[in-house]
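Please, structure for the following, as tokens.
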Amino acid sequence: MMSWTVFWAPPAQIAVQFGFSATSILTVIAYRFALANQVPPLSYSTRLDVFLNGAFILAFLALVEVILTARLIYRERIAAAERVDFHARWAFPLLLSAVALRAFYL
């Protein structure tokens, strides 16, 4: 959920958006390393593995969204960049809900 902050920062503040996005990715990676010491090694994926993989993919997609909006800003298409941010604000929570449902209930 931390990666969603990039959708609320103004698209013109590319450094802020990139910083939030990169921090989110590094946080997921650090969390996986921290859990690796707490969970016994298994030969199969657990529900937690599925959830964390989904979270990593969503954090990476947030970085892709930052790059996309940065390119739009560079091409002076500010309205398009704001539209992408607007749609991502509701799409990413829905995607995380789908990941959580897949990981813990299906």
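The CA atoms of residues 14 and 70 lie 6 Å apart. The chain has three helices and no strands.
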